[in-house]
Amino acid sequence: MNRQIDVCLSPELLNLYELEGRIVVVIDVLRATSCMVTGLAEGVESIHPVATLDQCLQLAGSGYLTAAERGGEQVAGFDLGNSPRAYLNGAFAGRKVAITTTNGTLAITKSAPFAKQVLIGAFLNLNALAEYLRQQPEDVVLLCAGWKGKVNMEDTLFAGALISELEATHTLCCDAPLVSKTLYQAVKEDLFGYLMQSSHAQRLSKFGVEEDIRFCLQADQYGVIPVLKGEELVVLPSTVSQ
Amino acid sequence: MNRQIDVCLSPELLNLYELEGRIVVVIDVLRATSCMVTGLAEGVESIHPVATLDQCLQLAGSGYLTAAERGGEQVAGFDLGNSPRAYLNGAFAGRKVAITTTNGTLAITKSAPFAKQVLIGAFLNLNALAEYLRQQPEDVVLLCAGWKGKVNMEDTLFAGALISELEATHTLCCDAPLVSKTLYQAVKEDLFGYLMQSSHAQRLSKFGVEEDIRFCLQADQYGVIPVLKGEELVVLPSTVSQ
């Protein structure tokens, strides 16, 4: 199989990428996609990503827990913020969650109408994702959520980590995959130390979420891959919830 | 002086950057900005960047030499293509040149209405540019021309090289400067070998321009900095033409 892998470093560039017939992996390591992986792995039934705070609150009426983050902080009046550790120990097993974040949910809703399949990636499910993609015939586009449209560090690093796992089976399309891979290879021995130089990590560390950052950088904690089914994220059937 | 430096990795992201009152450095290493530096250093009187082939041809009537490249190749009916080596040995000293390229001229015309000053950067004038920027009080935005809107390797690498020269005097704003710097530091010992893995270099090498690529990667060949004055690029007065 001759498959290609490309990286879109910002949702603002998504119009330059062909998504038709392809698998899109949405990446928002700090912290939306890390929450999604953790939540579903810890027994949450489904996650409904929405673009706005209003849409999120509307779902509360249908029994959803609501999770909202803007600019790195939990929004008042919502059940949860954007910490993946809130889902540990099956805290919300069996519940449905509606989630809205600054960048990650937008990346999902932008790619959903076009892609063949939308998956959720984070360091937490890196290996499960790599194994699944190796078995699929489709080309892959990694979509980094970035920060308010700009390229960010942690999502670029994760794209590089995933490409490092796939370069034996997939052809790197353009320069962004090579940029991501080289970056990851250069700093992988101390991801946390390096990332703490980045603007988003510094922004987040003001909110006391250094522990979240350490949690989100742990590779292969979970075997689940969230997949978009209709409007909701559920566990991809071939992967295993904890 | 507390100055900031940021990197816009694609002209498609330019709307996210504040340019007002700032110095913008346009970067299109392969090969538009390398041509501009070489041309002006080799005695060309001025360079008029235009967006379209038609605009370029119209200037021929006013005595301009015309230079046009699309998709990496010289366009039929124009005097010059996009090889910086064509300007060597003062071949066109005293002439005016109108130039249109796939990405570089667009980056210039997009930033011109907003920036305080638009400069042209390439490895060929790296050190002259760094020295000049160290002396200016303004914040700096490095604008990579990319490839048809996508992030490319060679422009990201040059941004990283320039940031490496300026990190003692300028604060890195967001993640893109850190990505660029880390990438450059990781591969600077063999820029040519690394770059030949990139898609644009491979695309260009089909046209037999490997020598151009080697030429464009030479640091500090020239002391001139092209600056946009009205609609034309001329030598920045404080810098020295050869």
UniProtKB/TrEMBL annotation, chains A, B:
SUPFAM superfamilies, alphabetically? Answer: ComB-like
Report keywords, A-Z: Hydrolase, Magnesium
Any one Gene Ontology molecular-function term assigned to this protein's record: 2-phosphosulfolactate phosphatase activity
- E.C. number(s) listed in UniProt: 3.1.3.71
- Keyword Hydrolase attached: yes
> Which residues are the signal sequence here?
none
User: What cofactors does this protein use?
Assistant: Mg(2+)
Which Pfam families does this entry report, sorted A to Z? 2-ph_phosp
User: Does the keyword Translocase feature in the UniProt annotation?
Assistant: no
Q: Which InterPro entries does the record match to this protein? A: ComB-like, ComB-like_sf
The record lists the catalysed reaction(s) as: (2R)-O-phospho-3-sulfolactate + H2O = (2R)-3-sulfolactate + phosphate
Organism superkingdom: Bacteria
The family line of this record is: Belongs to the ComB family.
What name does the UniProt record give this protein?
Probable 2-phosphosulfolactate phosphatase
Organism of origin is Cesiribacter andamanensis AMV16
Its ancestry begins with: Bacteria, Pseudomonadati, Bacteroidota, Cytophagia, Cytophagales
What is this protein's gene name?
comB
